[in-house]
Amino acid sequence: MGETFGEQFSRLAGLMFICGTIQQLVPTKLRHYVEKLWANLVNYFYPYVHITFHEYTRGMHNEAYSCIRTYLGSKSSKKATRLTAEKSVDSMSLAISLDEGQEIIDEFNGVQFQWQAYKEMIEGTSSSSRSGRSGASIPLEKSFYVLVFHKTYREMVTGTYLEHVMEEGKAIQLSNRKRKLYTNKNSDNWYWNGGKWSHINFTHPATFDTLAMDPKKKQEIINDLTAFRKGKDYYAKIGKAWKRGYLLHGPPGTGKSTMIAAIANFLEYDIYDLELTSVENNAELKQLLIDTRSKSVIVIEDIDCSLDLTGKRNKKTESSEKSEEEKDSNSGQDEEDKNTNKSKVTLSGLLNFIDGIWSACGQERIIIFTTNHVDKLDPALIRRGRMDMHIEMSYCKFEAFKVLAKNYLDIDSHHLFEEIRQLLEETNVSPCDVAENLMPKTDSSDAEHCLMDLIQAIKAAKEKERLKGDKEVKAANKFKANLLKRFTSIKKSAKVMK
Ligand SMILES: Nc1ncnc2c1ncn2[C@@H]1O[C@H](COP(=O)(O)OP(=O)(O)OP(=O)(O)O)[C@@H](O)[C@H]1O
Ligand SMILES: [Mg+2]
């Protein structure tokens, strides 16, 4: 193709123009005959195929058009000489695209494909009644791309090339878009207020680099997420929905919420923060799930506090031989919940949310639960396959401290590090408390000041732990003494009775 292709194309276009002019001068019958002959001639000698992609088809926006536009934009910014640029509210960067009348050659698997951008004005009719000119003729802009290729590559185009263009265009669009943090609305507001979820732009700065935790554990999580992201074909092969569950557990302030932000930033996904307490029943839960998009992280924070799900499944199993899923439709239970005016989402409703048949509608999703009390959760909820990876976020140890020191003070080493290492080995302090102490309190605070503050804070926490321990030992001793006293008195009275 290349120059030869361009020359051939313009020669044929010239010929077509001359023939078109001749055709207008001859009678209709003869013209039809000439047209037919011409079409056959062109088919015989012209070996190229044209495919047109319109911006709108049957009044609807054509998704293929916008994917092609983005794809060609990324190619043409390096090759074409005339481009257009625009910025939408949903996009983080300027969208560059091929300007009208421009063409570029794209190479795929060693084959060249020509793309041309066109715009034309057509006459449309206004349906607006605001101006009182309903039905008036207005000029409309019609944009389209034409793909030109040699007919020998027809199969390649329909088989792999167009798929490649669509996928790459979509991927660029996704990485350029502003990501969103969604929260579920109360169902009373679903239908008059545009959808079931409200959203704001998601701009949390947390990344795995700034997350303080054991480096080995962190790498494991990164590897798991990377495998998941690339796993489309693998999940399809094993017949599993393309989703993965993570359970984050640990004491307050150990970075569970921060980890969620880091995961979403790493995968470039949106976040759906599901507030279970404002979901009225299992049916609503299902509808919320269906209304989420692919490439998203669905989060239920503090799952143990969200609903009374703990142990419910076990209790029910004892009281009846019905399966959990059957009990879900138990109207008696529903009635009871209605009376107590509580959310009727049940454990089985939640299990269906995670791995029921509906959960597979819309792929590439991560589901994350967080809790401070993993031992309180029903084993069914967190078994592998539902929550595939259990991640314990623990108190701050030296490796995690080093990450925080780098983040907050921009230092890799300091003579006080050794003392801090020893103190952290002996005391339980959350990364949140460590981070708080590493923040400079005044303009003149330097690294030394902050580290000294931290040492004082850890020592105070250590003393508190010791006092608490002493108090507990004292209470235990008192309890033991009381028990012994009672036992001796019982023994005495038994002797008297004898
Ligand atoms: N592992 C960590 N790495 C980096 N920063 C952390 C970490 N843990 C806590 N922080 C800091 O402490 C703050 C609180 O952490 P975060 O909200 O993630 O804790 P959490 O485990 O979700 O707590 P809770 O159980 O109370 O919800 C964060 O804003 C962050 O600045
Ligand atoms: Mg949290």
From TrEMBL:
ATP-binding among keywords: yes
Entry keyword set: ATP-binding, Hydrolase, Magnesium, Nucleotide-binding
Organism: Cinchona calisaya
Domain AAA+ ATPase stretches: 242-397
CDD domains in the cross-refs: RecA-like_BCS1 (cd19510)
Skewed-composition ranges (Basic and acidic residues): 316-329
Residues covered by region (Disordered): 314-341
Keyword Magnesium on entry: yes
Catalytic activity, reaction form: ATP + H2O = ADP + phosphate + H(+)
GO molecular function list: ATP binding; hydrolase activity
Obligatory cofactor(s): Mg(2+)
Protein name: AAA+ ATPase domain-containing protein
SUPFAM superfamilies, per the entry: P-loop containing nucleoside triphosphate hydrolases (SSF52540)
Record family assignment: Belongs to the AAA ATPase family. BCS1 subfamily.
